[in-house]
Amino acid sequence: MKRSLTTVPHLESLETRDLPAVNFASAVFVPAAGATAVAVGDFNGDRIPDLATASLWGTDLSVRLGRGGGSFGPLTSFALPSRFAHSVVAGDFNNDGKLDVAVSSDGMNILRPNYGFVSVLLGNGDGTFQPARNLSAGEDPRGLALGDFNRDGKLDILVANSTAGDVGLFLGNGDGTFRNLGGHDTGSDPWAVVAADFDRDGKLDFAVANAGSNNVGVFLGNGDGTFRNLGGFATGSRPRALTVGDFNGDRIPDLATADQNSNTASVLLGRGDGTFRPALALATGGKGPRAVAAGDFDGDGTPDLLAGAGPGASPHVRVFSGRDLSELASLFAFDPAFSGGVRLASADCNGDGRDDVVASSGWGSAHLKVFEAGNLSELLSFFALDNATAGAFVAASS
Question: What average pLDDT does the segment 119-138 reach?
Answer without folding.
Answer: 95
